[in-house]
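Sanity check

After download, print the first record. It should look like this:
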Amino acid sequence: MNKKELNTILGSQSLTLSEAMQQINRNTYGILFLTDANGRLVGCLSDGDVRRFLLSGGQMSDSVMAAAEHYPRCASTRDEAKRLYDKKNFIVIPILDEHRVIVDLYLGDGQAQKKPHNPLDIPVVINAGGKGTRLDPFTRVLPKPLIPVGEFPIIELIMREYQTYACDDFHIIVNYKKDLIKAYFADNENQYQINWYEESQPLGTGGGLSLLKGQINETFFFANCDVLLTANYEDMLAFHKEQGNAITMICAYKNLEIPYGVIDMGVNGKIESMREKPVMSFLTNTGCYIVEPEVLEDMVEGESIGFPDVIERQKAKGRKVAAYPISENDWMDMGQLPELEKMRVKLYGE
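Expected C-alpha cells:
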C-alpha cells in the first residue's frame, strides 16, 4: 500500500467522532486507525465501535478516543499479519515498526471468500405503492420500483439483499401502476415468493400495513421500495430482540457541509462566534424498520397515515421504539435522481 492510500485509513486521536466518521466514509475499509502526534498507533475506530458508543449515550461531538478500541490487533511483520488475518474475520491488520508507527497494512491475499450471512428467515414487507414523485419524469412511464439501477430494477435489488439472509417471504404493497409491477415479477425467471396487497386508494408510507392484518404473526422487516441497506441485518435484528422493541427504526448518520460561513449572533447584532463551512451531523430515518406483529393489529383499515405517525401511536401506547444507527456508507436512497447514478457506481463500479 502506498503512502497516499495509507493516509486515507489513518486519523489523528484529536478528531471528534463526527470528523472520524467522515474520514471513514471517504475510505473503502470501514475503519480508521488513530495515531498520536508522533504517528504512533493509539487506537482504531470501526462502524461497530461508533454504534456501540452512540447507543450508550455518546455524542458525535465527543472525542474519537472515547469511542475507539484502544488495543487494536497489530503485527510487526507481514507473515504475522497474515496469520492474524486468517485466524479471524479481520478487516485489515496494521504492520508497525519498532516505534509503533504504521508502515503498512495487510488486507488479505485476495483469495478470501466473503462469508455467507447467517439465515434470518423472517418476512419482508415492501411498500411499493407510492408515485415516486422525486423520480419524475421517469415515474410517469415506469413505477418507481421498476426504475433500473444497472442490471436490476430498484425493488429487485432490495429483495436480492434480503435473500442473502434467507429472507424469501416477500409481502409487497402496491397501488400506482401496480399491473406493471406485478407483470414484471410474473415474467421474472427468479420466481420470487410474493404475496401482493393492493391499495384501493393511497394509504401513505404506513397505512398499507392495515392490509396485512392476520397475514404475518412474527417479527418482520418493513422497508420503502427505494431503500437499500448494506449494513448487517443480523445485528439489527439482534438489537431489536434484545431491547424488546415494538419497532426499531434503522437510521444513518449524515454529515452535511454548510457551504457558507455560519454566524452566531447575540444582542444588538454582536457576533458571538463564526464557523467557516461547518459540518452538521444528524441521524436520518432511512425508511427501513423492524416491526412486531402487534403493530399490524393496531392499524386502522383504510386510513392514510405515514409510518412515523404509526411510531408515535406505538409510543403513546407505552411500547418501546428505538433507533439503530448505521454508517452513511451503508445506506443508499434510490428515491432521488442524483442518487441513482451514485448507487449504480457503488454496486457495479465505474
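If your output differs, re-run the checksum step. Summary of this record's structure: The mean pLDDT is 88.
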